[in-house]
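Trying the structure run again after the queue cleared.
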Amino acid sequence: SSYRSSGINAEYGHEKGAGRNAHYKLISTVMLWLQNTRTGFENMDLGGSLSRQVEKDLPMTSDNFSHIVNIGGMVEKMENNIRSVLETVYFGRTLDLLNDIRSLVD
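Done. Tokens:
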């Protein structure tokens, strides 16, 4: 069995008003491919992608690192959210489906 995963994050940001806040738009996509090639089992390939989008207004500070901190925090939260969705919905649902199929065969 093997799996491959890759992700893409696209971030857009611009300052609003007097420069005290910035508006950010983050679009993240994860592409996942699962493949079962174990001997004695049917081959199974499962692939797909999951995209999420979020927009936020975040404060700017006087230093030059505000955008890096704001973008980094948004990407980290998005990655945790997508990981949770993949684990519970995609992997959990796939496991339930395979167990249902196995119980029908037995």
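The longest strand covers residues 21-36. Worth checking whether this holds up in the mutant runs.
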